[in-house]
Amino acid sequence: MKKLIYCVLTIFILAIVFTYHSNSSASSKEFSLLEACKFAKEKARQEWSKDAEIYYVLSVDDKEKESKSKGEHGKRRYWNVILAKPGTDDQMLYTIHNQKVVEKLALTEPVNNENIVDLNKIHFDSDKIVDKAKRNITYYQEKVGPKDIILFCES
Prior knowledge:
Layout: H1 2-28, H2 33-47, E1 53-59, E2 78-84, E3 90-97, E4 100-108, H3 126-136, E5 138-143, E6 149-154
């Protein structure tokens, strides 16, 4: 009987350790908006063009891959970042999953220089904005389907 209790207790402790390790390693692979931009820009300047600039950024939900994070802390594991060479038709889409570039796609569209993102003019990152919003806004969630949630906010 003591061996059974010992085995069950050991399995329980291992499950807790594994769960904690899985959650902490998943969150450590997340990027804030600025982190994703800086990462993609550095990669693009190394691999594609030294003139690469951020043009468009979007966090991505990947239904094929389960993600524990839905961005509620201002960080995501999945990002699409389009970089452009100002004054050209050259753009490059970088798809980032878990802090790695998993896909690059060359795009040919006129680059509107007014849409180039100057990272030096961004003074607050997504994780800080979400944190501030959570402290200053009361919000309510209503589940309307198996995966659909409506968010109501009041300030």
